[in-house]
Amino acid sequence: MLRFSKIGRLRSFVAVILIQLFSETTARSCEGRCGERATSCSCQPTCEALLECCEDFKQFCVEISPHSGSLLGGTDFRIVDVLFDRKVNLTCRFKSETVTQGYVDTDGVGHCVSPMLFESGWVPFDVSTDGVSYSRSGRWLSVHHSKLAEAARLTLVNETQWQYYGTQDVGGALEMAWDASLINAQRVNVELWGYNETGEPYSERWRAEWTYLYSVSRDVPNSGRFRFVPQLPSAPLSAWDVGSVRVGPSTEPDGARNVNALWSDGHALAYNLDEVFRRDPAAWALGRCLQWDQEEKHLPRFLSEITDCPCTLAQARADTGRFHTDYGCDIEKGSVCTYHPGAVHCVRAIQASPEYGAGQQCCYDHTGAQVLTGDSIGGSTPDRGHDWGSPPYIKPPRVPGFSHWKYDVITFYYCCLWSDNCHYYFSHRPSSGCRAYQPPKSASVLGDPHFITFDGVTYTFNGKGEYVLLHSSNHELTVQGRTEPMKSGNGSVIMATRLSSVAMRENGSDVIEVRLSDWPDHLQVLLNQKVLSFSEQSWIDLKGVFVFSSTPQNVTVMFSSGAGVEARARGGVMTLTVLLPHAFKHHTQGLLGTMNDDPDDDLTSSDGELTAANSTAQDIFAYGAQWAITNETSLFTYDSEFLLNEYFFAPKHDPTFTPNFSVSEDPSDPLLQPTLKMCAGVWVAFCKYDTLSTRSLEMGNNTLLSLRNHANTVRDLQPVMSCGWLQPPSHGQKEGTLYLEGATVSFSCNPGYHLYGPQQRTCHSDGQWSGSETYCLSDDSLGIVLGTVGAVLAMVAMVVAIVVYNKKQKREKMKESEDRNTASVQLNVAIP
Prior knowledge:
Blueprint: H1 11-22, H2 45-49, H3 57-60, E1 63-65, E2 68-70, E3 76-83, E4 91-94, E5 98-101, E6 103-104, E7 109-113, E8 121-128, E9 134-143, E10 155-157, H4 159-164, E11 174-177, E12 187-198, E13 207-221, E14 225-228, E15 242-249, E16 262-263, E17 267-268, H5 275-279, H6 281-297, H7 313-318, E18 323-325, E19 345-349, E20 361-364, H8 402-417, H9 422-428, E21 441-446, E22 450-452, E23 458-460, E24 465-472, E25 477-487, E26 493-506, E27 512-516, E28 523-527, E29 530-532, E30 539-542, E31 545-551, E32 554-559, E33 564-570, E34 573-580, H10 617-625, H11 641-648, H12 672-678, H13 684-694, H14 697-716, E35 732-735, E36 744-749, E37 753-756, E38 760-762, E39 775-778, H15 779-830
Parallel strand pairs: 2-9
Antiparallel strand pairs: 1-3, 3-7, 4-5, 4-8, 6-7, 8-9, 10-11, 11-14, 12-13, 12-15, 15-16, 15-17, 18-19, 19-20, 21-22, 21-34, 22-23, 24-25, 25-26, 26-27, 27-28, 28-29, 30-31, 31-32, 32-33, 33-34, 35-36, 36-38, 37-39
């Protein structure tokens, strides 16, 4: 609860203003429990802050712990800050349709169990104590199984053995492990469940379903580990070759849904397949591969609507607004690329394709070149089902994880891993090249603070307030920055500012705010004015936006347009990087400039007034002040008395704060020489200013590191020309799998064949290969060809001779006719 001791008389005014400010972010009404004001109140932090609106907030808006779990369900979560009578019938209803049974423990704490869902992201739920009236509400975060912390799921020990069980030399006992404390039982059942999608594809009758198959074992100790030797199923179950293992209380009936349990990742149920598979896995798999090949031919083609891959590994890792690390092939985790041998890193397009919800995958080798399926089984492959799913999620093939398994992964097992028939798979899942890829443009805010625009203009603006960093009306994207005065080690104010918070939203998405926390070099993330925790997962799917934070120092925000915002904390300062795709060109304004490849107009105010980049520091300061926001347009959270006093009730640009526009370089200053030694190179001015103004070499060094990181990002995102994949000649080979500007590919032929055409082809700057196509012809083929050519030439010669002869004959006849006519005329003249 907030207490505003200095502005008590304005409390009601604050409530009214804040209700108006945040009315767009409220998700659900308080069901009339607070009278007329309830229409602007919701189970959001806004409601908690405004006790004027709902004084009984905590009686019906509940907080839970943990707040997230697997989309397969089974997580037991506690309802905090509320005590219940142990005799009540506690139930939870998710999305107003799925009800799970809860309970009250000996301490009066209520518990509920998350249900099986076919979607990820925030899911609303209601709580009832009588099974009839649902008077309390909250939110549950449903998480893709691969993005869930490993401790929160069932782990398959030696997963490769599970996936290949029954194939050559793969057998024995299978083992699994789990955190026993997450299942409220002394003894458990181990069950196998299968996943399938039924009905007519891409129709209203298309459905995703989970089916209980059988119990592997019942009533075993909840020790956290279990081993078993798979037995052939008594009934045919080959219809389910994708699924998960579930461990739950033995007191629950077999196959009971929505009970406290832990699930494994989705995987190939090789150990579940019948005797036919065990006898000849390759033949069985080929049959399935051919069946899939025919089915795929009757499904809509999606390749034309997916985005092209980045050309290089450097581009792929830098383009964080549109591509994110594929968890199955991560260079930061040792490059264990099971499905992409030869690759060291893969990324996935964050956004699914618009019509079919398809995904894009891009893989790269140790040289940084893209690996293509035309050259290697480890090449990049697009996906009919995006691995992370896509809204509305619940409909195939958009179910997170499992649609991808059904259409893209298990089929890879059929055609490539369990049999040697990858050509069928790659005919439907060929790698996308990078000829149409356009890298994004990068802009940054760093130090105390310095700005680098999208077109490369650099300047310093040390205003105190809240400003528009970026606005694009074309995409309805807004990024706002809050700056605050810096302090020295002894707590005194330095006449320079730092970026302390960034708030952003795109096209009606959730509002994301990233701000420096009280912990050194830690960032705090707020979702619609409420603190968002990353303790249980690092990736969160939200409305129109994704947020990723693997460490408290780094946060990446990814919007549907492909815009990316990266925030980093180092040395008490926030560094911001904004990445915009080519579609934003000519559609940006704000302190980060006009992205149009023209640096001369980057310092343009909101009313169109232009300030030259080489203007005085005072003129640039005046320019920056014009980009101050208003309370009505603010996306920021004012959840403390300090923020209310300093920013909400104060001018958005503080006219009383005048920074140091320059720093003196006193030869007697003991800090000067170390500063000059450290601050060499192109960024010397920013480095010197930060070091000498803050009296900290560490601060200057951090600024220098941030500047170098920005320069590296700009370098990595430079456009690269691609000429596209070249196939080897029939009966020959090629050497070289790089198809970018300057690359050369060489060709050779098999024994008994001769090379015709260029032996080498080079990729030119216009995106075209030099020379013409190369062929490998055998001697016999050559003889046939030459013989055929000779016959053709002879025939042509004969035709030419006939034509010449006919023309000669015609000329001779014409001459004879002319001679006769002349003689006749002469004769007529001679006879009177």
